[in-house]
User: Fold these one by one.
Assistant:
Number 1:
Amino acid sequence: MSQLKPASWSYAEEFVPEPEVVEAARRRGVEFGDASPVGTGAGAALRFIAAAVQARHVAEIGTGAGTSGLWLLAGMPEDGVLTTIDSSAEHQRAAREAYAEAGYAHQRTRVITGPAADVLPRMTDGAYDLVVVDADKGGYPVYVEHAVRLLRPGGVLVLDNMLWHDQVADPAARDATTSTLRDLGKSLRDHDELVTALFPVSDGLLVAVKR
């Protein structure tokens, strides 16, 4: 059993420094109140995964203020394109500003405004190297169903907040959000098409590779 101490977790969480442009996007996300940004550890993991799979085609469900998108773009090849979906036009304006401030050409991002449940069915099967889900938690099961379809073999699915403020690991926590995320994690763990791991970075990052 791991004897990881809080100090070690904090050290690992902040091991990769957050770039200034990402920090600025994080502040905007916090100000929105309904666009909670990914943690620094999770962001560094997203950058790492995007670089490891040389992800040229990435789909992100939940744009927020652009924090996770900046981490993803930093790991993607220079010709990679990030398709990001959010129902809030205000969030996406902030994200566009963040991408521009970071120096990314507008051709590198495809920003789609609308409910993900409406947008995802129109997207192409097997066309994406990486799909990241970080949106309303009640919608996760629907988003994940589409995400698996969108991934190519060898593509990677990433879900943020899968430990949900330490609630998922607590069997006494049975609120709707916690139960949804707990049940979804177990279903992905047992999914025949996926090889899955759950990493205790930030608020919990579930990562799965499509066979």
Number 2:
Amino acid sequence: MTAALLAYLPLLEPLPGIERIWMLLLLPLAFGISMVYKAMRVTNLDRYWRSVGVMTVQIVLAMTGLAVLLTLLVQVVVPMLPAE
């Protein structure tokens, strides 16, 4: 096989060794997005960290809610559809 076929493809393969805990990567991602967004939008830096915390919690709760809704859709609603 050629070296190109043996190469790691990050967009097509999961990161090796992190399959069981990849969902925990949502926390630093949400925190980083919140920090950058609030650094650009907050007019008074006295409330910066509180705003970052609130937005981080909002992002995590929204992603968790979407995951639960999509799981219910796939596990409950799709099997009830008539098969042709």
Number 3:
Amino acid sequence: MQAKRARWQLLAAATVFLTLAFLAVPTTALADRGNAQPTLSFFSGGHGGHADWLATIDQPPGDTDNQAIRLETTNGAPTYEHGYAGILVHHVTGIPAADFPDSSFWNKTPYPYLFQPYTQGSPRLVVAFQNPAGEFDGYADLRQVVRGNDWEEVSDQTDYPNSAWDVMNTPRGAPCYPFRYSLTWDEVQSCFAGDTTLAVYLPADPYGIYHLIDDVTVNGKTFSSASDNSNGNNDPAGPAATTDPSLLPPLFLLPPL
């Protein structure tokens, strides 16, 4: 079952990024080695996929700023090339894997959906890595296996093993090649020992599901409201596809298995 889910996750990731091949972001534009505080922006795969800050009192327990991130997707069947939405985190490239802290986020899907209780790996927080030569070396993604319809924290520290990291390594990243499943963050760091971070993003796949996302924690910073995104881009994305390369995750070419 894990292998089936992993293949699906790879297909979903390839669908998102291969459809954006001509919009690849140069690594040099992202590499500041964590010297700047993280910021975020939103992206959309078009066909109604939408991402923005939402004014709402519907928030995780203890959160009182009356804002959350809305990721609204559309059903992209049968190809699933469009209709996704997501969050791109900036200023997180070039940080040694050993120094990059664990990440987490809160998710709510307010209504029952066809897949539930299974998440099909969406939404997921992806951390991609590069080797010392600057070559893409694989990624780890934090996801839930099952969920309900209320706010739930997606964290390998508070919800393991339901929330955990899955890893895809390239042949260059031999320690965990080709896949490892249901890992904690320290195990992920071992899979990418000697590597640095390349990109961080949080996509919701095009299944027509409405998500609320809040308290996204990356590189020690938590995004709970638009005010936490100082000097970042709070502009909504969608319903048309995002075409600004600076607001899109870079293209990752996955090796053959």
Number 4:
Amino acid sequence: MCENYYKQFGSNFYSIMPTNLYGINDNFDLQTSHVLPALIRKFHEAKKEGKDKVAIWGTGKPLREFLYVEDLAEAILFMMEKVEAKDLYENGITHLNIGTGKDISISELASIISKIIGYNGKIEYDQTKPDGTPRKLMDVLRINKLGWKYKTELEEGIEKTYKWFLNNK
């Protein structure tokens, strides 16, 4: 749609595709949240309740990419200031991916979150539950070539997110 508005009316519209987001104001509801905030909530509650184990769906092997929400906001501002639709469409580019270009296994993610929260129990994988897609990683070369790169490393972003969760849950 954006490309057609550009072609028909010269509108400076284009599409972006962000990867999995997390951060402040996230949804930590165990029934409706995504994996990262759900793990924060699970480990937080397990620590608070003194549980000796946390169960995680699947094998822990799938790979996911995560972007801190404030980095997405900076990417959007960067694009509004620096990127023109004509420069994308006239070079055969239909959209820009926004992400880190790095992925991590769910088991590694769980270990990082467990460490940040200070949970010392066992992590168990419920292999009766689905893993989902084996790998979700975006190619962010185009936006990096335009001059934007994420700033918040995963551990730092999780620490900020957990601090926000503690103050706002």
